[in-house]
Design goal:
The structure is a single chain. It is built from eleven helices and 15 strands. The protein is of the alpha/beta class. It folds into two domains: 122 residues, Aspartate Aminotransferase, domain 1 (Alpha-Beta Complex), CATH 3.90.1150.10; 237 residues, Type I PLP-dependent aspartate aminotransferase-like (Major domain) (Aspartate Aminotransferase, domain 2). The strands form three sheets. It has a seven-stranded mixed sheet with strand order 4-10-9-8-7-5-6, with helices on both faces. Helix 2 runs antiparallel to helix 8 and helix 3 runs parallel beside helix 8. Bound molecules: pyridoxal-5'-phosphate. The site of pyridoxal-5'-phosphate has 14 residues, from helix 4.
Length: 375
């Protein structure tokens, strides 16, 4: 049997990793400024993380959600404390898409309405509801196309107000910073406006923090730069540093009902142990602040070049938009300089480094980037 060929692959096979460094099967070392697509939050194979998972595996790896799981309770308490959402509740699932799916479902149950407002250039995942909320017709099958979704331009408060006024809107969903769509940062005033509008029209405000959350932008959640408190916050990627895990934080206004949400694997012992270890490391190593400081350093020291159109983002969620296709630059960075980077669209290099990136590692990228630009 062969693999179903849906991914464009680089010819590199990582076999070992530590911190922001990855080694391939030939022993070549790489600097990781992609973090496995924003997933590696506390660095690869952190000893505390590895020990926590091994220890948990020796105790109990899995039981279902039909019994009490003290690790889920600990995790809810810890996420509440570190994020400032102690009065919210936590539902654990397995991925970013599933988190958005659950958020949309919850908003619809709560309001009794079925339409959702999303934004142009959004990405919310690949499952049926999440992909319907994603502004990319190429990945929406006819089966996914029946959801009632309206797309507005990001930062266009008037368009959202007009749509809400038409009625039937259960939720507005917005990314803390649009990631796959090209690092577009919602204006703080726009998020504040959304928050007021949602309250007025009894629609839930869902903040998708799957990529922008968990410290990546220099605050625990990107929306905290705007000082708002959404009704539902969705999590994934960095929450467990690569162990599959997702979750949603739910405002106290939402009342649970038995059976309302559910999952087989969500919140399993291994995922919880991984997520708890991630929070230990984030706190012990002050990684949210590190993401802010090293991200600002990186942004401030990027070369001035007529080939660069614009640099956008916050902390360690940065996009370098070029006036040209970035494919040759990324190839040169990977194969000549041995640096992993991400991409958005055709013209943007997307940097999503682990939150433990050091200034020296940022310098290594800056020097390499200068050199490939000069080639
Ligand atoms: C903002 C955002 N939401 C949701 C998702 C989907 O997450 P997953 O691939 O874990 O389902 C992604 C993945 O890139 C994302 O960037």
């Amino acid at each position: 049997m062969e693999l179903f060929d849906v991914y464009s692959l680089f010819d590199v096979a990582p076999v070992r990793a530590r911190g922001c460094t990855v080694w391939d099967d030939k022993g070549q070392e790489y600097l990781d400024l992609y973090g496995g697509h924003a997933v590696i939050s506390v660095g690869h194979c952190h000893p505390h993380y590895v020990a926590a998972l091994k220890e948990q595996l020796d105790r109990i790896g899995f039981y279902s959600n039909s019994v009490r799981n003290p690790l889920q309770e600990q995790l809810a308490k810890r996420i509440g404390e570190v994020s400032g959402y102690e009065d919210y509740s936590l539902f654990l699932d397995n991925s970013g898409a599933e988190s958005n799916e659950n958020a949309a479902k919850l908003a619809s149950f709560h309001t009794g309405k079925d339409r959702i407002i999303a934004f142009r250039r959004s990405f919310h995942g690949r499952t049926s509801g999440a992909v319907a909320l994603t502004d990319n017709p190429a990945i929406i099958s006819p089966f996914n196309a029946h959801h009632r979704v309206t797309f507005c331009d990001l930062n266009d408060g008037t368009a959202v107000a007009d749509e809400l006024a038409k009625g039937g809107v259960a939720a507005v969903i917005v990314e803390g910073i649009q990631g796959c769509g090209g690092i577009h940062v919602p204006e703080p005033g726009f998020l504040q406006h959304l928050s007021r509008l949602c309250e007025h029209y009894h629609a839930a405000l869902i903040l998708d923090e799957v990529q922008s959350g968990y410290g990546r932008t220099g605050k625990f959640f990107a929306h905290q730069w705007a000082g708002i408190r959404p009704d539902i916050i969705t999590l994934g990627k960095g929450i467990a540093n690569g162990f599959p895990c997702g979750g949603i934080l739910i405002s106290p206004a939402f009342r649970p009902r038995k059976g309302m949400l559910g999952t087989t694997f969500g919140g399993n012992y291994l995922a919880c142990a991984a997520a708890l270890a991630v929070l230990d490391i984030i706190e012990q190593e002050d990684l949210v602040e590190n993401a802010r400081v090293v991200g600002e350093y990186l942004k401030a020291h990027l070369p001035q070049s007529p080939r660069i159109k614009e640099v956008r983002g916050r902390g360690l969620m940065l996009g370098i938009e070029m006036n040209e296709s970035v494919a040759p630059l990324r190839k040169a960075l990977l194969y000549d300089k041995h640096i992993f980077t991400g991409v958005a669209g055709t013209n943007m290099i997307r940097l999503l480094a682990p939150l433990c990136l050091t200034q020296a590692e940022a310098d290594r990228f800056l020097q390499a980037f200068n050199e490939v630009l000069a080639q």
